[in-house]
């Protein structure tokens, strides 16, 4: 034993060197075998570059963040959820598009039904709210009308000075016997510290049943789970009759972050309030997420209800997406609409990091004469994403896309698209790779000329608060900034 120990002392450096080289080669070979399987070429190349440059760091990161899927037991549960969604969606009546609707819109409806199970519903009422405090006040007022149940799901929920009345409304109805169920993303809400804990204490004090979605447990269900798979949806349903959907989280507009308050940053949102048959689709989506986290199947008669208000004229269809679905539902929907547009595309997205197919769809639309405009923020709150999205501006501007920069210190966090005068898509989905692959999202497709007029009013308001970026201005930016943008674009491909 002493001789072996002495030999290791004498030759340790050589042994460690050869061992390191062996591990280095093995990790590179494993990377070449594992990374390209069922992965976009751009993403595969980015991961392979990370592994080849520094295998000891790159390969463990790939194991941690390289697979955009749920662990086996969670996937099995998701299959149950999808079957449940398909079965219960049969009880929601189908609607037909107006005779003057373009043929491509019917194709989009069929695509959405195939991807997400939900039918097109008619006779819906919808309006918009873009004032942050007013939308909170209106949601609280709707909650106070509840007689049976309230369902709340937000990526971020926190009890602070701005959201206090919303949570007070939930407590009031819970105290008088209304069933309140609440879901919030674990990581999205947990990072807000004291106001997150205050919300949980508030729920417990008033007997409100609540669960964190996608809780961060690396080895939950007996298998490794990628920690950045998140539920990014925002939904509020009252008695199955009133529904809210959009981009706004349940937190103060500055997100209670000292850096945001110091810089004067605050978030601009767009929310839609809906009544009619579409609210049952929203309730059904909530019920699947509820089952996913609580294992409780909500009674069918409380999930799909007969709408009290069918006076509306809008056709609506809900489109869920996320890692639990086989296809990237939101990406396929956006691309279908972009290629179908004949006159106009107006897109609003705070985080615009498209994959190759979406970039091609927008550039192609602009090149064939469609009036394409993109609203983004002049400043960013996420360094990597902000600089990655800037790397796409040159190709868009050269193709003729008009880029509107929503002026600082506001972060334009709204997420919606209008196509011609035919259809709107609004919801929680950004136009970035994370929203396409990693986040559970909810988007709503809404048709109706009256609703399009409302959307154009919102776009006009955002345009009045923005300045247009020109190709001449963009080409004059410093070379170091160009290099930084392109480097961040490469890093953003590693998903």
TrEMBL record:
Q: Which SUPFAM superfamilies has this protein been placed in?
A: Phospholipase D/nuclease
Q: Where in the cell is it found?
A: Cell membrane
Tell me which species this is from: Brachybacterium sacelli
GO molecular function, a single term: transferase activity
Q: Determine the domain of life of the protein's source.
A: Bacteria
Q: Membrane topology type, per the record?
A: Multi-pass membrane protein
Q: Which Pfam families match?
A: PLDc_2, PLDc_N
**What are the record keywords, sorted?**
Cell membrane, Lipid biosynthesis, Lipid metabolism, Membrane, Phospholipid biosynthesis, Phospholipid metabolism, Repeat, Transferase, Transmembrane, Transmembrane helix
Q: Which residues cross the membrane?
A: 12-35, 44-65
Residues of the PLD phosphodiesterase domain: 227-254, 408-435
Q: Is Protein biosynthesis a UniProt keyword of this protein?
A: no
Keyword Transmembrane helix among record annotations? yes
Q: What is its EC number?
A: 2.7.8.-
Q: Kindly give the PROSITE patterns that the UniProt entry links to this protein.
A: PLD
> Under which name does UniProt file this protein?
Cardiolipin synthase
């Amino acid at each position: 034993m002493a001789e072996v120990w002495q030999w290791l002392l004498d030759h340790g450096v050589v042994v460690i060197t050869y061992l390191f080289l062996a591990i280095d080669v093995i990790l590179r070979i494993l990377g070449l075998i594992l990374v390209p399987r069922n992965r976009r070429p751009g993403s595969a190349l980015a991961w392979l570059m990370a592994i080849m440059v520094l295998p000891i760091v790159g390969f463990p990161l790939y194991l941690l963040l390289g697979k955009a899927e749920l662990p086996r037991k969670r996937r099995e549960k998701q299959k149950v959820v999808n079957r449940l969604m398909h079965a219960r969606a049969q009880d929601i009546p189908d609607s037909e598009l107006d005779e003057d609707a373009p043929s491509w819109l019917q194709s989009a409806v069929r695509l959405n039904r195939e991807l997400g199970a939900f039918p097109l519903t008619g006779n819906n009422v919808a309006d918009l709210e873009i004032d942050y405090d007013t939308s909170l006040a209106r949601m609280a007022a709707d909650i106070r009308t509840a007689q049976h149940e309230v369902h709340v799901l937000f990526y971020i929920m926190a009890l602070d000075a701005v959201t206090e009345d919303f949570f007070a409304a939930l407590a009031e109805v819970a105290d008088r016997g209304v069933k309140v169920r609440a879901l919030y993303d674990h990581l999205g809400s947990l990072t807000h510290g004291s106001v997150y804990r205050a919300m949980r204490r508030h729920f417990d004090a008033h007997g409100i049943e609540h669960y964190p979605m996608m809780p961060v447990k690396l080895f939950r269900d007996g298998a490794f789970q990628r920690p950045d798979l998140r539920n990014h949806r925002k939904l509020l349903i009252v008695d199955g009759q009133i529904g809210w959907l959009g981009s706004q989280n349940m937190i103060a507009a500055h997100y209670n972050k000292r850096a945001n308050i110091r810089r004067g940053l605050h978030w601009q949102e767009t929310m839609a309030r809906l009544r009619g048959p579409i609210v049952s689709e929203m309730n059904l989506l909530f019920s699947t997420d509820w089952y996913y986290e609580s294992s409780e199947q909500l009674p069918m008669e409380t999930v799909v209800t007969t709408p009290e208000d069918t006076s509306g004229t809008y056709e609506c269809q809900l489109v869920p997406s996320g890692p639990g679905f086989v296809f990237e539902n939101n990406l396929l929907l956006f691309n279908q609409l972009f290629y179908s547009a004949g006159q106009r595309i107006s897109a609003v997205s705070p985080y615009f990091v498209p994959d190759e197919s979406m970039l091609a769809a927008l550039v192609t639309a602009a090149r064939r004469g469609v009036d394409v405009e993109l609203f983004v923020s002049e400043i960013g709150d996420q360094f990597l994403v902000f600089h990655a999205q800037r790397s796409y501006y040159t190709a868009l501007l050269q193709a003729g896309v008009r880029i509107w920069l929503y002026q600082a210190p506001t972060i334009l966090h709204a997420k919606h698209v209008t196509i011609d005068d035919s259809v709107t898509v609004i919801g929680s989905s950004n136009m970035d790779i994370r929203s396409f692959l990693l986040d559970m999202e909810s988007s709503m497709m809404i048709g109706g000329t009256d609703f399009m007029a409302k959307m154009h009013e919102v776009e006009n308001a955002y345009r009045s608060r923005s300045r247009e970026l020109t190709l001449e201005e963009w080409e004059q930016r410093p070379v170091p900034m160009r290099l930084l943008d392109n480097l961040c674009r490469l890093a953003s491909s590693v998903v």
